[in-house]
Amino acid sequence: MKLIDGKAIARKIQEETRASVEALKAVGHTPGLAVVLVGADPASQAYVRSKDKMCQELGMFSIKRELPADTSQEALIELVRELNADPRVHGILIQSPPPAHINERAVVEAIDPRKDVDGFHPINVAKVALGDADAFVPCTPLGCQRLLVESGVETAGAHVVVLGRSMIVGKPMALLLMQKGLGGDATVTVAHSRTRDLAAVCRSADILIAAIGRAEFVKADFVKEGAVVIDVGINRVADPTSPKGSKLVGDVAFDEVAPKCAAITPVPGGVGPMTIAMLMHNTVLACRRLNSMS
Ligand code: NDP
Fold first, then answer.
1. How far apart are the CA of 212 and the centre of ligand 1, in A?
2. Is the distance from the beta carbon of residue 236 to the nearest atom of ligand 1 less than 6 Å?
3. Hey, whose CA ends up nearest to atom 48 of ligand 1?
4. Is residue 135 within 6 Å of ligand 1 at its C-beta?
5. Is 212 near ligand 1, meaning CB less than 6 Å away?
6. Nearest-angstrom CA–CA distance, 279 and 55
């Protein structure tokens, strides 16, 4: 069994990004990312902090805006418009999930699609579906695809089961895998909460990508001997042995599944670091595109 080291692969991508940032700065363009958080959810605050820190580590410009939980939708959209017009900002990210009174879709639609580094704007969703080269691809599925490519896992002709059909992970993941070319050309099945005999469907996968948000849901009987498993899930569960009283686990029951796998990602240290690496990659891409450099 090979452990796919997401941290190491993410570090390699960050180094490529750092070189791109230096090259852009040398010609007068500093890639910039604005991250907006509404409310004080601790997990979201931690994500926002790590994105801001990574921008600084890579020499990028960053704006972190933390707004109170009662911020109105109009005020949030007004901020998005300001960021759309700010020439220092090439990427805009609204940390999800916003408070319930905010219509997330309306806010995402206010983002200039050329600055939509999360790839959630309908224009980018359509471009991913069309296979357009200038789409912004959502960071988590893009990171999963890159993990497979970097780990030498052949997707062409493989049967991939994507477990989960969200707009953030499952659906774009399936689209990427069925596209022609490197990291694509797969035969894709998308499974979800209404799938009949889920374990049998998953067991037919050469590559299983789990993104359902259920702690350790995928057991050994979901996995074929010799399969590759990518675990997207991040779930906090109680752990009396840890000083914090909790720990992070994936959607896969790692201990029982790993011995059956040809390769598997751990949680943490698998998909998570790739998501942020791809966000930085997309921001550099946005900077190039906005300056007509690619
Ligand atoms: P969503 O809740 O938006 O979607 C979950 C999907 O899983 C849905 O399609 C749902 O089916 C399906 N599902 C839920 N329960 C079951 C079940 N019992 N059997 C079969 N299918 C089920 O989650 P996300 O896609 O946003 O996130 C999934 C996981 O990935 C979460 O743990 C999240 O924390 C993690 N994540 C990790 C990231 C990273 O950087 N590593 C980034 C983004 C997410 P249905 O549509 O039928 O309801």
1. 3
2. no
3. 193
4. no
5. yes
6. 10
Q: Is 213 in the pocket of ligand 1 (CB under 6 A)?
A: yes
Distance separating alpha carbons of residues 260 and 264, to the nearest angstrom: 10
- Which amino acids are annotated catalytic? 51, 95, 118
Residue 172 contacts residue 146 (beta carbons within 8 Å): no
Measure 290 CA to ligand 1 centroid, in angstroms: 33
Which pLDDT score is estimated for 137? 98
CB of 140 sitting under 6 A from ligand 1 = yes
Please give the average pLDDT of every successive group of 10 residues along the chain, which has 294 residues: 97 98 98 98 94 97 97 98 98 97 98 98 98 97 98 98 98 98 98 98 99 98 98 97 96 98 98 98 98 87
Nearest CA to ligand 1 atom 19: 193
The answer to whether 11 and 271 have CB atoms below 8 angstroms apart is: no
Q: Are 287 and 253 in contact (CB under 8 A)?
A: no
pTM of the model: 0.97
> For residue 18, how far is its CA from the centre of ligand 1 (angstroms)?
31
Residues 6+ apart with CB under 8 A from 184: 145, 155, 156, 176, 177, 178
